[in-house]
């Protein structure tokens, strides 16, 4: 029997394999360099930094890079939605990406050259990240939209396929062959990713950039903020102005904070206070703009609240490549014997557990867990999955904190103890991140697909900002004094702090999810190629 296209069960687009293969190779390149970045900084590039400060500086560089990589999606989203379209933007920014990998391989002992390579990778990887996932969604319409969830899961599975082998092999290459080879191979994989993407160019559905819109989000927001009503003030405008002032202060502080942190903080303040202010006065835009445009802005503001509540998850998740590696460096690593093959796990290789578990958990959830929940009368909606995922990330950090307390007490701990928190954090990732890709696309108005996906990745930037803020705060003598009163080490206290942060957020997220009304913003028909 032919698939029922009227119910969204039409055939899978034939161009999808090109995009998924591109993503697998690109993710190998990104995670290949990302997962050896902290060990390389500590062991090689930052040797001029005093030993007691080197780990902290390496974590600072790592999270600043991640902030940059998840900040530039806003640029990619703008270029795709307003100027060049997704295909051309992905292709061109990917070339910067390849050049960045080349810089890492060439400038292994040159601080400025290496950091310039990180900048190019942040520009390329960040710029294309939301566009590739949005480009996947563009290949679907109402006739086959139900296939999109399966493809997004396959898309995420292939991301982790590339990440798994990168996490397993790159630490060995760094140890045995040096940084030029270890950073050069991810560059070759990124070049392969660009080639694969280019080969599918005649098969893609290319949704053209949106033309200038007099009823765009920014114009509706401007109208709402500036509109006057007799006898009423403009409290929303006041809130937005506070955000502007805060953004200016953040930019001025860039000299001491660093440009990336200052610029990202400024943008977050503009979005947060501007969004709140717009929401306070949005009804004033009616009559000046169509009701559909006003309701579209309201929908975007509601989506941004969801994204904001996901930021604590990312503050926990991304530290597996910094804080968890630092902890693993102080743990014992037993020699394992599997079918006669003996090996000793390197601390950075523990990250291979994450993509391996993702590849196992995605089919397990779809084939076993979710059908079981439905049989019990519990529908695992996107927001329910994300709520559970945030809570599980908090549980993972409770375990990692317990491990740290045991080590601080003098108990030798095997690196294998990290298996449990990795399992919890990975289930959290599958429920939050894989779900979030589909959620972001389905809820975004048609003219803002790329930009909304960029806001989704901006949540990662804010999550890493939380990390830098917390790390900076523990350098304060007053804060250190209070931590000392708890009887915990600074690192253990931070671990339990992040755990509590996530658990509290999961509660707030769950309460907001009860009020959120889902919408369906897939295309009604095929877009022109």
From TrEMBL:
Keywords of this entry: Membrane, Peptide transport, Protein transport, Transmembrane, Transmembrane helix, Transport
Broad class of where this protein is predominantly found: membrane
Location(s), subcellular: Membrane
Superkingdom of this protein's organism: Bacteria
Record's bilayer topology term: Multi-pass membrane protein
Membrane-traversing stretches: 28-49, 61-80, 89-107, 113-133, 154-174, 180-199, 236-253, 259-278, 299-317, 356-376, 388-407, 419-441, 453-471, 491-514
Pfam families: PTR2
Coiled-coil blocks: none
Family to which this protein belongs: Belongs to the major facilitator superfamily. Proton-dependent oligopeptide transporter (POT/PTR) (TC 2.A.17) family.
NCBIfam families: yjdL_sub1_fam
Protein name: Oligopeptide:H+ symporter
Native source species: Pseudoduganella chitinolytica
